[in-house]
Amino acid sequence: MTAEGRVGPVGWPARPSRWSPWRFLLPAVLLAGACHGATPPRVEESPLPAADEAAAQAFLDTLQHRTFDFFWETTPAGNGLTPDRWPTPSFSSIAAVGFALSSYLVGVEHGWITRDEAAERTLTTLRFFWEAPQGDGSTEVTGYKGFFYHFLDMETGHRFEDVELSTIDTTLLLAGILSAQVYFDEVDGAEAEIRALADSIYFRVDWPWAQARPPSVSMGWRPEHGFIPADWRGYNEAMILLILALGSPTHPIGPESWHEWTTTYRWGTFYGEEHLGFAPLFGQQYSHVWIDFRGIQDSVMRFHGIDYFENSRRATVDQRAYAIDNPNGWQGYGPNVWGLTACDGPADTTVMVDGRLREFHTYWARGAGPFEVKDDGTIAPTAAGGSIPFAPEIAIPALFEMRHRFGGHLFGEYGFRDAFNLTFDDAGIPPEKGSVVPGVGWFDVDYLGIDQGPIVLMIENHREEFLWDLMKRSPYLVTGLCRAGFRGGWLEGRCAEGTGP
Phi/psi zone of residue 416: left (φ > 0), alpha (ψ -120 to 50 degrees), beta? Predict the structure, then answer.
């Protein structure tokens, strides 16, 4: 279904579409939002041939729908626990559940599922997380202090093996829950219960407890050993964690936590673009799935004259420039084959390939930025897919070309498989997972929930600004932004006097 033919939620009028088939060809500066006087470096466009422009729009429709189907069809209706990956049997990822909850809303907007179907699945999920056992034991529990374990058994919903209680994965789950709370606004019935459960789950989270080394927030905790000896220090995907922790009406952290976070920022220049360094692109994307950072600034961004959206645009452009330069000579890299982030890979090994000693990895946080390059030749389509709002003029042609160049090896029933590596074709050893297509390269077999989520949701933000507009109605998100010192743009006049550092 095209954007023009979509329907709104049941009982609501359809909203006019902001999508245009030509939009991805516009210069990036027009799409980056207000940059407060800064002149972004020019992006070299890679426009599709004229005959492919309509096909690219249809491709985005297909990509978004298939990626949505991953969440709807692989998540058990009985408990709402989205698997970490599919088809390889796995545990549930609570972060993937958060992406799923927001994706259901997109499904309603497009008419892929009904509002009642989405509400029923959402209510089942929220009931599970509210009623699941919390406690400081190491087994037969789902969480503690309002937080949840990173991975859960798909059947019991209890902690999977010895994984950590994860503050960031709990946050991504909460973001999905709060998006559902805003969306489902009918007065009575299931939708009223969704809103009440969302409050109950969010209010229970004891954010100060997780400040093992105040004012920072710990990355996690295990009952066997206590807090992980690492805190969230910027810049990375945890912006949304601090903002939701600041916005809590029951157990908030103080504004000094945001100040401490920003004191650890590192700015650098990479391929001509100055920005905050965090090499894997997921760290430049996750918070932006739910928060529209265009034109709003904290004190650090006011000083630098840009916003966090523009920062992510620059990081995206850098990655493409790095792939074009391809200093390590990986097979296939170029203007429309790029994108490094945390993803699957072919094997954990070091092997000679074409006279060069090559190091490969399975799941690994790949990336390229001012302070770090971690690259083994593995490309993840979610790196470009999650960056569509930042730089559509380079992200959409990349996805389009990867789909058509690699066909069914990479693109299947749920959209893009997680990753591929064209250099590993010459490694001469079998992969630890996935398969090697002779003469082409290695392709993953799995779809990963945390990589599927940014694709379906960021396409929707690019086309309709849907999730961004929705979350602007969340009082907790707005309060958190205000307490972090954000001002301007769509926040103008929404921060009460005295909020913020």
Answer: beta
- CB-based contacts of 49: which residues, under 8 Å, 6+ apart? none
Distance CA 31, CA 392 (A): 8
Q: Which two tokens stand for residue 345?
A: 């890979």
For 140-165, what is each residue's pLDDT tens digit? 999 999 999 999 999 999 999 999 99
CB-neighbour burial class of residue 65 (10 A; exposed 0-12, middle 13-18, buried 19+): middle
Is the whole model's pTM more than 0.85, yes or no? Answer: yes
Write out the two tokens for 118: 């989405």
Using left for φ > 0, alpha for ψ between -120 and 50, and beta otherwise, residue 3 falls in alpha
DSSP of 161-219: TT--EEHHHHHHHHHHHHHHHHH---SSHHHHHHHHHHHHHHHH--TGGG-SSTTS-BS
Q: Is 250 helix (H, G, I), strand (E, B) or coil?
A: coil
What pLDDT, on a 0 to 100 scale, did the predictor assign at position 53? 73
**Separation in Å, CA 343 to CA 28, 284, 332, 365:** 27, 15, 18, 7
Angle of CA points 109, 454, 13, to nearest 5°: 10
Q: Which helix (H) or strand (E) holds 469?
A: helix 466-471
Low-confidence ranges of the chain (pLDDT < 50): 1-45
Q: What is the pLDDT of residue 498?
A: 63
The rounded Cα 381 to chain-centroid distance in angstroms is 13
Measured over the CA atoms of residue 109, residue 393, residue 477 and residue 227, the dihedral's sign is positive
Measured from the Cβ of residue 478, the count of other Cβ atoms closer than 10 Å reads: 21
pLDDT at site 46? 52
Helix (H, G, I), strand (E, B) or coil at 263: helix
User: 3-state class of 69 per DSSP?
Assistant: helix
CA distance 461 to 176: 15
